[in-house]
Request: fold
Amino acid sequence: MQPTKWLEQNDANLIGDLGKLVGIQSISTDGEHANELNQCADLTCEQMRSAGLNNVQVLKTGASNPYAYGEWLGAPGKPTVFLYAHHDVQPVKGFEADWLSEPWTLTERDGRLYGRGAADDKGAIVTQLGAIASHLKTSGSLPVNVKMLVEGEEEVGSANLQDFFVENKDRLMSDVIVVCDTENVEIGLPCLTYALRGIVELHIQVRTATAPVHSGMAGGVLADAAIALNVILSRLYWGHKKLPIPGIYDKVRKMTGPEKRAAKKVGGDEAKWRSDQGVLEGVELALARNVSPNEATWRQPSITVIVQEASSMRNKSNQVLPSAQAYVSCRIVPDMDPEETYEQIKAVLVKDPPWGVKVEVKPTAKMKWWMTDPTGPAFTAAQKALKKGFGVKPMPIGCGGSIGFVGPLAELFGGAPALLLGIEDPLSKAHAPNESLHAGDFRKLTASLSHLFDQIGDLPDGKVK
Ligand code: BES
Ligand code: MN
Reply:
């Protein structure tokens, strides 16, 4: 039987496998779901064994969340493909009411599969295992060797992943990296991501007194920490210009004319962007003049206040608040330096504090950007495989999100090519209520991966670069 035929016949089982994964609340962001993360790693292992992988086991390093690992090494002389996905997910807390169906029950509506983690990134686990099984269940072998790792802490920055890679270097060593954790910019359009943004995250704390004071007694006298923090944060406002941070653009690699035109062409216009993301009528896009949404997210730095806190809604009372804090996250692009970027943002935040309030700024995360030249045998193989699976010529794209390990892992594997294949689409709403996976594209990606194994297995002399 043809592998793709097997995929058609086993479609319901694969969707069922995804349903089981989505059923586990493997949230990594709050530190309260260790049991579920263990369960999810165990279930992933079970699905790896059913697909036919060997040496399947849960692995850990230090205080990491559990990784699920499995391999099939029965193609000596052929390239080894390293497959990556993650089984941890974002929370739903606070936004449960916005879900149209239960977040932990995979629910099909209008050709989309709804549920937390369906697209980011549990769909990728089933896609990869489906592609593996399509070969192993039909011919008993694969055209390449595979090593598959499913991480459990991607959504919190993969703090242990680098150590894990170094500790397990020999076991994991591969020739090509395949990551399914990025986006296709249009439904039905397969995309190969060649650039990711990095992140510089910092914490800012403003303090004015040792404790809150009755606002009847102190209002108008004691400096208000919440207002002071917001005065400081307002210095990050860019209107429709560039970010008001001296030096931040010094190292940004210019996009060439052809790159800009290519970026403008994909994914639709600003109107489509507005409607896909649910922007309210009358609210302007925060773009700098003459910059397209793709150019902004692929190749420009951006700043977001991801959380701020001075008190809580529940504890509302007539007090002047003595302390306020926020996390500021900056996405960085080629060729920005994370350390320098941190110092540049910090300089703006600590300068001239209103009322002389105490301001403390600390770095909380730094992750490099990544960019590759998407040419060579492995990329050609991926292009052919995606063309076959989707029936459409694939598109090279940049990505506004961050997957920190890609660069360091490619380096650890001696400059292995990294193929980043899209599992999400503009309507997936990853991290948000009503996250979903496009069922048609999920099937096409699974078939594409099945073809990718053939294409890589057919490369002359096994040369992937
Ligand atoms: N799947 C995303 C990365 C992504 C984002 C791909 C947007 C395509 C479009 C990944 O799971 C993710 O969210 N990564 C985090 C990394 C962070 C926790 C260090 C991100 O980008 O915020
Ligand atoms: Mn993801």
